[in-house]
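Question thread 4412

I'm putting together a teaching handout and wanted feedback from people who do this every day. The idea is simple: show students a protein as raw sequence, then show them the structure tokens that encode its fold, then repeat with a second protein so they can compare. Below is the first pair exactly as I plan to print it.
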Amino acid sequence: MTSIYQLKNVTFNYGTEFNLVDVCVDIKKSNIIGIVGPNGSGKTSLLNVLSFLSFPHAGTLLYNGKELTLNNFRQFRKSVGYVQQSPYLLRGTVFKNIELGLKLKKVDKETRVKKVSEVMQLLGINKLSNRNARTLSGGEAQKVAIGQVLVLDPDVLIFDEPFTHLDKDSIDELEQIVLKLKGELGKTIILTTHNQYQAQWLADDVYSVIKGKVFEYQMINLFSGGIDLKNNAFNTGKQLIIIPQDTHQAEHIAIDPKQIVISRNKLDSSMQNSFQGKITGMAEDNGQVKVSIASDEEFQAIVTHKALEELRLSIGAEVWISFKSSSILVF
């Protein structure tokens, strides 16, 4: 599959905490990309680079195979439609809000009407055409904001926290729109969210941003704390987790959920981490099963349906979880 973005050791420094450090990302065309991380981690900084609003201070950024420079990067802005977290809609009808970009580009009226109608049909907002945009609900306003950029037919759509402050029905509708934009129009979609699980089921690839560093890693089992040098462990405040040797400083760890082994009894194995716990939840996860286990900390493991049946796992069952120190990302 062809790459649309390639970031190689990209660094962007605001001089504040909102920095990016040595980012290496390869984004494929017509994929949905989920970006997760806490507030202040650098998610919006990354979106600004991907939407060509900010130019990296170091590293290489390629778009469709072409390297961007200070002289040419602004010309790529028209390739991206950026919907910010709290979209601002102008006074006037929904139709006029969506039409505005085409008018500014001096597109003729007949073409404008056709394009706006097609976009509203795709987003399911035809009935809102004559509504005052300032009277819309959060979910309706988000769809109109998407329509404003979609009508200009960008290759990439970037959504900054699009699901924030929406009710469940609006979230469900917006998720289906995102899938439709990829499936029917072949758009590349990049979105940020605080919801790890939503990102995993909705996106083709998920990146986690922590303190300006970007990881292609499922950071479900993300813990904060510090190094316990005496025990060669990471102390979360609740649990000591054995980590790779020669690690002297870290504030976070993340454990790959697919590397966590669930058993009914404690295993006699070389895995250094083994904890007893109780299953508190199970959910479908892309053809597999995500199992939540409460020990001193809560862990998430991903297992096959076959393993689920063979172990006869159920909510409330007492189990052991085990994993190698090599399955832990320390940073």
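The second pair follows. I'd like the answer to focus on this one:
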Amino acid sequence: MFTDISFQHPWFFLLLLALPAVAWWTYRHRQHHHATLKMPTLEAARGVKSWKGELQKLLPVLRALAFVALVFALARPQRTLKEETIKADGIDIFLVIDLSSSMLAQDFKPDRLEVSKRVAVEFVAKRQYDRIGLAVFSGEAFTQCPLTTDHRVLTDFIERLRCGILEDGTAIGMGLATAVNRIKDSPAKSKVIILLTDGVNNAGYVKPLTAAEIAKEFGVKVYTIGVGKEGQAVSPISRRNDGSYVFGLAQVEIDEELLKQIADMTGGKYFRATTARSLEQIYNEIDRLEKTEIEVTSVKRYSEEFYRFVRLALLLLLMELALRYTALRSIP
């Protein structure tokens, strides 16, 4: 029963030593608790017992048990709910996601951006002990979410991403530089950027290789992912006045050579995702590659159990009082 119970204040059990002393004192002075009725002889009542008389002997036992229950409550019993060993990776990761209009291409279902968001959310869920941030880019770039361990907030930011919130274009260098600037001063043993794009750098004032040099200087590893099938895909080719996109067939163009250079310079790796399944496998491989255990922490969670003993003590006292002044009441 008590294998998973511990007591925060066990010294209260010393109060139980008072029980034998109280029992002895009560026994020695029992004749003072009842009025004495003098009779010429008790020979006629010898051997006669009543159930009330026998049950009255249990009343002090109920009070003693209530006292024991209160002592247990004062000792503050706690039940161990969970004990686990946590091996924290201690890696800071920045996701950099392309929001250019071409990410609405429908060679992925429903489109590249929606698949990229879903897979990114699944990746975040696996890295529960890491700090993860989010930067986005198209013709310009900004930090959507700084490094955080609050993955619910991060997931919410990822799920709300959409194309058209920034000037259109593909500023790969700007996106990478934004993430490097956020992660470069991190004290983590491992700093990683995962950059996902489906195009060719054609905007921004920071060259991609310059951003890669800065990442290398600060020990930031960059994994690059090119998203899109080979050949042509149904993609946005223009935009109406109301902001909606006009779709048509367009050639898939990804600067794979640039993405390979960025990855090689920083000690990362380049991946090409042509299907939703291959994108999932890429994130799984990155998850497998980036494992750096730095500490082992034992965590215990407790639930307070003292209230159970308080309830038991009150119940026993109420029973004792109810019996003493009703069914087992003695005549003074």
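Top answer:
Good format. For the second protein you could add a caption like this: The radius of gyration is 37 Å. The chain has two domains: 1-27+51-84+299-332, 90-292.
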